[in-house]
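Hi there. Long-time user, first ticket. I'm pasting a complex I've been working with (about 430 residues overall). I'd like to know whether the download I got is complete or cut off, because the file seemed smaller than I expected. Thanks.
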Amino acid sequence: MRKGELTRTAILAVALDLASREGIEGLTIGLLAEKMGMSKSGVFSHFGSREDLQIAVVKQYHDRFEQAVFYPSLQKARGLPRLRAMFEGWIKRVSVELASGCIYISGAVEYDDKPGPVRDALIAIVKEWREALLKCVRLSIEVGDLKENTDPLQVVYELNALVLGLHHDTRFLQIPGSIERAQLSFERLIQNYQTTESLATKKLPPATKKAAQPL
Amino acid sequence: MRKGELTRTAILAVALDLASREGIEGLTIGLLAEKMGMSKSGVFSHFGSREDLQIAVVKQYHDRFEQAVFYPSLQKARGLPRLRAMFEGWIKRVSVELASGCIYISGAVEYDDKPGPVRDALIAIVKEWREALLKCVRLSIEVGDLKENTDPLQVVYELNALVLGLHHDTRFLQIPGSIERAQLSFERLIQNYQTTESLATKKLPPATKKAAQPL
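Hi, the file is complete. Here it is re-exported in full:
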């Protein structure tokens, strides 16, 4: 990386941290310059405006989310194993973020009535993740893990709701054991849509499942 | 009402509207005085501080929520009919508020990492509502509508999650038909916990149900 790119990356990392704590709206060039020990014009030379900076933060968040949650899930078999990996990665991400907050979730509340390019950027990344989930649910039906009459949009609404509920209960109400609740609800939710064949497969004893995994 | 009380009530109504739009943190004595055509000291004479005002708004919101959702649900029979009424009233409230926003939900994000009296007041009212839901779920088990092995806290987590999902999908993503999705998910969720007897009762034809209602 050239020096300019390195500086930009470093600014973005600090900006992401700030936005997670103070909200995207709490992000200003002045505050960022102070945290970086740089001049305001120094920060401006990397991001043309406060709005550009906010959008870059949103995209950076999305990149990290994809690296941590989406790409690893593609290692799993199409269908329910992949859907389960997506959900597991998602709630782990939300719990890792408990100290700071998820930009998808806090951003949705910050920007629900503030039209503009930042809101558009946020909606675009949230929709991208939901499209990925939707595709995975559709594949789960195709491979016979979920019933044919499953409404994929309904499943996506319910999965997203469970994650919002987890975020709320851990971060705001600070209720212990909320992650286990989310996992339990996921399994119950999926059972409503699972085919008998797929339910039977799931009932393999743990030993058999372990043996099938690479050493 | 005395004149002082009337003024206080009027200020509170405007403050609640402002807080729904701009967030509780967006509420200032200055902005409120401007909207009311009053002096700042005039507003201060009714609320000792900005924090007192914010707490009064939170309590006012809670009173209205109770009037609109909780008290009407008590007219329904203990158990599932009451639980259904509570959920129906809740999602209607969230959809009425779509133009402005639910203070319980936006407040949870605004104050999740801001300790202090406003956060405490918000947590207190949210917990009060959850206690009411919890009690209703427990009664539903007692009267035999829900299975004995139902975990009431799990049901409350799931109900809250469905409402957060609805708020997110309607207000941020503006997806049409989200209320119907929430209703469908509620029915599916409840079916997981319903006793066979209670499921059988639910299958009465609509005509019978209508006839049993007062004219």
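A couple of notes from our side: The interface with chain A takes residues 21, 101, 105-106, 108-113, 123, 126-127, 153-154, 157-158, 160-162, 164-166, 168-169, 171-173, 178, 181-182, 184-185, 188, 192 of chain B (CB under 8 Å). The mean pLDDT of chain B is 89.
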